[in-house]
Amino acid sequence: MIDPTRRRFLASTAALAAFAATGRGQQPESKPATAPPQPAQPPQPAAPKAAIPLEKRRFGATDMEVTVLGFGGAEIGYQQVDQAIVEKLLNSALDAGLNVIDTAECYAGSEEAIGKAVANRRKEYHLFTKVGHMEQGKAGWTAASIEKSIDRSLQRLKTDRIDLVQLHSCGKDILEAGECIEALEKARKAGKTRYIGYSGDSTTALYAIETGKFDALQTSVNICDQECLDLTLGKAKARNMGVIAKRPIANAVWRSETQPDNGYVVEYWKRLQKLDYDFAKGDTRNSQSPDGAAGTALRFTLAAPIHVAIVGTSNPARWRQNAELLKAGGALPKDRIDAIRARWKAVAEAGWTGQT
Ligand SMILES: NC(=O)c1ccc[n+]([C@@H]2O[C@H](COP(=O)([O-])OP(=O)(O)OC[C@H]3O[C@@H](n4cnc5c(N)ncnc54)[C@H](OP(=O)(O)O)[C@@H]3O)[C@@H](O)[C@H]2O)c1
CA 62, CA 83: separation in Å to the nearest integer? Predict the structure, then answer.
């Protein structure tokens, strides 16, 4: 991280330069009769906000200590967020203490945006990406396309090594064939990625864990997606895998009173109507207090045996806001976790499997 002293130095240098440019630093032409007025102070740039102390967890058997709150890079890609906003968003998150950035080769420009925004601060974050869809919507489940994809990710992310490359939600048949796993192992051996993982859900995630080949699992864990709590997370923990919670805030579906148009979030929205959690309605629905819907949802996810929750956002203020929620709220009390679990067990239908 940039030394705060250096930041202050840069800020005061900039302020002095601005002051000189106004001409107010010149000597007055004639001696005033009274004490010389003090030159007006130019506006001072805002002092950088301090980092937020966040819990860190050892990421499985790897050497990475990850902050429990990471950054999910899908939104900035799919929503084609302006590069200036991405720069603000990622730099302010790094300043506040973020140390995990997750993206994928198919998140429509996300890798390039991240590379441009923060490659100059590469030592400050663990960088995770995914392979398998060389172009949006088109699968590329061959060793050759995975190798090509990793090389392309390295270029886009402006780095010489990725910390974790994950197979991006391929089916069990692809895992069984073995070619793609071998391609990841080859990339790991070549030093292009330090660790390898599987990103996906439900019984395919279970199969991926049981292959024993992966260092990490990325899977959906949230108040509307609890299958993993019984099916996979215990198994991943037993194998000492690093676990990333994707969709950790359930896409904040409580924000919408009517069924959203976005098909990606509809299933969670429908589940939430049936789950009918007290904290996701009424006064707490849109509250940004730790016991509001966002704070409760995030704290519920962090109570699971996971290491980092990668919240997606296109809002530069969001990462700090969520980190503050966690700091203020601390661990979600056991009785509240039990109530959310009990409600799920009472209401969940057979088809409520992990959503990719
Ligand atoms: N198959 C896969 O591998 C896969 C699939 C899905 C996701 N992922 C990964 O997981 C990441 C996260 O998933 P996601 O973005 O779909 O789900 P998410 O993190 O659960 O939800 C993101 C949404 O939550 C909102 N939000 C965040 N904090 C909030 C707060 N305090 N209050 C209200 N709303 C808040 C964001 O809105 P704002 O923009 O307004 O902040 C955004 O719309 C992705 O970026 C991606 O990296 C991977």
Answer: 32
